[in-house]
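Thread amino acids onto this structure.
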């Protein structure tokens, strides 16, 4: 499935939603969870993920915690309070966009009023 452009526009929302559901995650874990949830249909590359994580962190939407795990350093990401609010906003925007997109692509599904 070639959906790189679609993923780019939704990546921040995906990250925020996963962190809301899982409290904290590290980068590789995020990529694997997306792959698992989509049965391999969506693959997020490190080249796309880490800039998005760093941007969200710089905006104060994520906090980080460094831990040593099996002689490796892992950087865990968590939502801040602002990140939780932004996740709700982005989910509302995304749901609205999907509803409008469905109306455009399937006009026969448009609700009929006044009958």
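Threaded sequence (115 positions):
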């Amino acid at each position: 499935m070639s959906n790189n452009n679609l993923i780019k526009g939704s990546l921040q929302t995906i990250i925020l939603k996963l962190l809301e559901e899982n409290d904290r995650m590290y980068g590789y874990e995020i990529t694997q969870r997306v792959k698992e949830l989509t049965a391999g249909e969506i693959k997020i590359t490190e080249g796309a993920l880490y800039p998005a994580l760093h941007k969200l962190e710089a905006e104060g939407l994520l906090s980080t915690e460094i831990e040593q795990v099996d002689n490796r350093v892992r950087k865990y990401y968590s939502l801040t309070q602002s990140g939780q609010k932004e996740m709700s906003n982005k989910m509302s925007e995304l749901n609205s966009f999907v509803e409008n997109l469905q109306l455009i692509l399937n006009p026969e599904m448009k609700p009929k009023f006044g009958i």
